[in-house]
Each structure stands twice: as structure tokens, then as C-alpha cells.
Model the fold of this input.
Amino acid sequence: MAKTYFISDAHLGLGTKEEERAKERRLIGFLDHICLDAEQLFIVGDLFDAWFEYRTVIPKGFHRFFAKVSDLTDRGMTIHYLAGNHDYWMRDFFRDELGMKTHYEPFEVQIDGKKVYIHHGDGLAANDTGYRILKKVLRGRLNVWLYSWLHPDIGLTLAKSTSKRSRRHTGGKNYGESDTMQEFARQKMNEGYDVIVMGHRHKPVFQQIGQGIYINLGDWIEHNTFAEMDRGRIALKTWTP
Ligand SMILES: [Mn+2]
Done:
């Protein structure tokens, strides 16, 4: 009865109005479906293409999705939300208004007796010192505070254009990153984890490595993929309405 689901990289707000409305409908269809047997859902980052939350202001849009999420958490589903590299700048909205459990760093969780490690997947490429420095700068407390003084119309426009550049950058180094993600998963298995779940790459991967499983969740732009864990067995599936 009690299953666990995982999705990542919906990048809400990325496409045209029509594309985004269709994506929102797909996601809500998925949520309506899993709420029949889901105990918990993990959102493994980049739910939004660009998210910057001010103390009193959030980006406009996504209303139906938010309504659905709060409905599910009200009804007892546990929804975890790990910030990705596109939506790291969240504050208390998701926790306090939508009842989600928010995470800013990779974390581990025990599900059906399995040790599961959850990581968005950014910053793992070996040759990516540039990104790791940028990440520190973009997430630094002082810089985030300064940024928050920009008018939201300016701040969010800037965030969107940065997001576009970042996606191009990530696309360019996809290859190296996929290898290091696998390598990272292997390393985590040696540390005793049974299942490693990541996103970020936008390409679904299901790989058995020894006794462990490495899953990359793909995305909800092209693939509409999700992982489903039922009594300790995990599978990667494609959502079809
Ligand atoms: Mn990402």
C-alpha cells in the first residue's frame, strides 16, 4: 500500500505558456494518481526553472500545482523537496504554506529497510571547479541578502536569464558529468548505501551496480519519468496519463 515516489527536474516556468500549462496538467495528473498509494514523494531538485523567494514575495504562477501539493500534504502525504541548482533560493514558503519538508543539501533516508541517498547531482563533474566556485558565490549568505534588495521584476528576470545560461553550460558538459555521477554513486554504495537517486542530467538512468542501484530520474520536460519504490524494490517508470 505505502509506496514512495521520486521525481526531479520539472523546470516549471521554462517553456511557453502553453507548454507550461500542459506540464502542470501532467504533473497534477501524476500527483492525483500517486495519492492513491503514496506515503511519500521526493522532489529531487529543479522543480522550477528559476526560483528566488523574497521575505514577502514569491514568483507569480504555478497556482494549480501549489494547490494540489498543499491538498496532498493536508491529507497526510509526506513531500520532500530538495533544492536543485535552479531553485536553491527558497525560504519558508514551501515548508510553511505547502507543508513540504525542504532540504538544501543532499541527504540520506531509510525507506523499506533500504539506505537511500538523495542528491540533486550538480557539482559532481571532476573538471567543474568553475561551477563549484560559482555555486559558493551564488549561495553565499551575504550575496543572497544583497540580491534580495533588487526589485522582484529585476531580480527574477535576472534569475531567468542566469538559468538559461546555466542550462546551456550543463548541457555542454553532460558527458563528463554523467560518468562522474556514476562514479559518485559507486562510491556511495561502497559507503553502505543501497540506492542512490539523482536528477540534474535530464536523462533517465537505471543502473544496477553490484548490490546497489543508481537511478537518475530524468526530467518532466521530455521524459516524464519517475521512480517508484514498493516494499524495498525500486523501478524507473514513465508517466503516461
Ligand atoms: Mn539541475
